[in-house]
Amino acid sequence: MQLDYTFHAMGSDVRLLIGDRLLTSVPPPLEAADRERAFVWDFSDRLSRFRADSELSTLNRSRQPVTQASRLLRAAVSAGMWAAQRSGGLVDPTLVRALERNGYDHSLDGAEPASLEEALAEAPPRRPARPQPSARWRRISVDDRAHTIARPPGVMIDTGGTGKGLCADAVALRLAGYTRFVVDCGGDITVGGVGAQLEPYVIDVQHPLSLSSICSIKVARGGIATSGLNVRIWRLPGGGCAHHLLDPCTGSPVWSGLIAVTALGESALEAETLSKMALLLGPAGAREVLAQHGGVIVHDSGRWEPIGPVACEPAVRPVALSA
Prior knowledge:
A hairpin with a 4-residue loop joins strand 13 and strand 14. Strands 1-2-6-7-10-15-16-17 form an eight-stranded antiparallel beta sheet. The protein starts with a strand and ends with a strand. The protein has eight helices and 19 strands. 30% of the residues lie in helices and 26% in strands. It is globular. It is α+β, with helices and mostly antiparallel strands. The longest helix has 22 residues, at 268-289.
């Protein structure tokens, strides 16, 4: 038996699957799920760039080069820095102003996305993204002893995608006293527990155009995440479409030849970073990025391709979760 518990946070659905208790010292699954819902809501409120009173917004407004910061904010900024380092600057947390220039200056939660098919037809020639030459993210530092974050005034930080991966991993650590569990924060998924190693969870990979199931992947531990263009895509007032995955070099939405990437990793944070990095690089780069842990890429044409050590099974029955 396991509890299946869903709620809304961070602009998406969050789903928890929690098995039986391993230790009598941990609360029953339903009580644990209620506790984790409160944790995720608090995490989301404090790190939202769309809330003027959030800790992240306060940091971004500050004109001071060094700012006092909570443990949560330091962890979130450190996760963004880790992703930038891991991706060679492609997954860049300092693109807030570029996101706002492209129309992502308010929450799109509940908004109907634009047509991905129409956006692809209107998109410029495909090319891989490149890191920002100035690498502003390298000028950010986190000091856990002093409880501070240092950055040049005016450099704004976005913890969006990496924040969901970090949140999924944090909740997973808090559920370590249960036989098996899944934490799904809007497609950034962490799987764990001895029960999952004995009987892995089956994760469904969804096609970004048809929204049908491409295949299923069994996951016993670690992370799996999907980055795609179909969820946060919108029409611009002057014509054309934009989405939230930007080329750091140009500050414009990337059109790399891929429309979705699912990646596996040791954690949800790593899987999120690898999926985004792979999509930004396009087909050739994605094959290199996914070679170690495996994944699935979906081309502009709709053709999908498994990469690396991933066993994709036909999605012929209902599955536990969608990446």
